[in-house]
Amino acid sequence: MFSTMQDQAVQELHFCQQGSLEAVIAIHNLTLGPAMGGCRFIDYENEAQAVTDALRLAKGMSYKAALAHVPQGGGKAVIMKPKGSFDRQQLFKQFGRFIQSLSGRYITAMDSGTQVQDMDDIRSQTTFVSSSSNIGDPSPATAQGVVLGMLTAVQFQLGQNMQGLRVAIQGLGHVGMALAKQLHKEGAKLIVCDVDAQKSQWAQQAFDAEVVPVDDIYRQECEVFSPCGLGSVLNEKTIPQLQCKVIAGSANNQLATDAMGKILHDQGILYVPDYVINSGGLIFASGRFRGLSAQQIGHEIFRLKDTLNKIFILSKNKKLASHQIANAMAEQVLYGANAHNINAEMQEAV
Ligand code: NAD
User: Fold this and answer.
1) What is the pTM assigned to this prediction?
2) Residue with CA at minimum distance from ligand 1 atom 40
3) What is the pLDDT of residue 210?
4) Does residue 340 have a pLDDT over 70?
5) In the predicted model, is pLDDT for residue 99 greater than 80?
């Protein structure tokens, strides 16, 4: 366990088992402020899988906050979905008390499997929660950032705007559907898929999108591939199928391994680092929690453009993959002079 924590540089791991609640909170780094990150409530095959998920995701949140100029540390919570029947409201209230016991070191928010009502139940026990109904769903802000990031990447890579460009969107959930709507407005031609056929049909009717089977999305001829469903979708099986020039989507942990980012770079595909392009949600959740105005939050999301341009330019000039540059920049913010111990070659580059 400790060696896994060390691998991800996670500082704290907290467990709670009470009634039907089996929860883990991972706190990666508190240098920039209290840790903030969503709470997952999904099926896990075993405890080890749940812990690994929490550790990996907490690290991603630290890096996301670092490059989004958000004064929060990285943290993530995972609740193992009980196998049998359970009282959902009681479970999330119990989880709220668990969060309260950490005295503000971790602030939770919505993630896969949780909803606003759950956040409200948590809020009945602790104030260390965002995306409750008084704060709102971060997804529109995430989608706003993804549109901006995609435009920035397309301008950099292809020297044009979205008019007439083909964008293949994988997953039409809270973020993917909002993204489709905005890209349709910008004049892009959409190719879409979702495991939920109703969502695809909706996009077909509303945005004149072409619907393709889920397994065919990778091989679509398009300028942009936008993963907005699951993680690890860029892997040895899918990358050889890709026909795109840019990858820009909201999903967390899109690269199955770091080596995949290098392969994309070598193939001349511009990969927009996931935790940078999808940081609008964190900017929103943290901003609202800290009492920023909508205008201030919008301004913070817009800064994403400069960060991405810096990553793209460094990646091109230094001949290093975009995710390597992004990681080195984040480590510089988090660890300062000590970052050299972590990744000397990359730190030199940024
Ligand atoms: P969501 O659950 O609302 O939507 C995900 C969609 O993807 C669903 O419609 C689902 O049916 C579909 N999907 C799942 N597997 C698929 C597959 N193999 N092929 C095609 N479609 C598939 O989630 P969301 O809030 O829209 O988030 C999308 C992604 O972005 C997630 O990976 C999430 O972690 C990430 N993200 C979301 C936010 C946010 O603010 N919502 C912020 C940062 C990152």
Assistant:
1) 0.94
2) 139
3) 98
4) no
5) yes
Give me the domains of the chain, ranges plus CATH numbers: 2-123 (3.40.50.10860), 138-350 (3.40.50.720)
- Dist CA 206 CA 228 (whole Å): 18
Structure tokens at 333: 């913010």
Q: Which two tokens stand for residue 35?
A: 């840790």
- Ligand 1 pocket test: which of 70, 78, 174 has the largest number of ligand atoms within 8 Å of its C-beta? 174
Token reading at 268: 């001349």
pLDDT at 4: 85
Structure tokens at 234: 């860029």
Per-residue pLDDT, 350: 73
Range name among 48-57, 96-105, 165-174, 196-205 with the lowest pLDDT average: 48-57
Q: Catalytic residue numbers?
A: 76
- Ligand 1 pocket test, candidate residues 36, 214, 250, most atoms within 8 A of CB: 250
Q: Under a CB-based contact definition with an 8 Å cutoff, are residues 332 and 319 in contact?
A: no
**Index of the ligand 1 atom closest to the CA of residue 137:** 40
Contact 167, 226 (CB under 8 A): yes
- Mean pLDDT computed over 315-342: 88
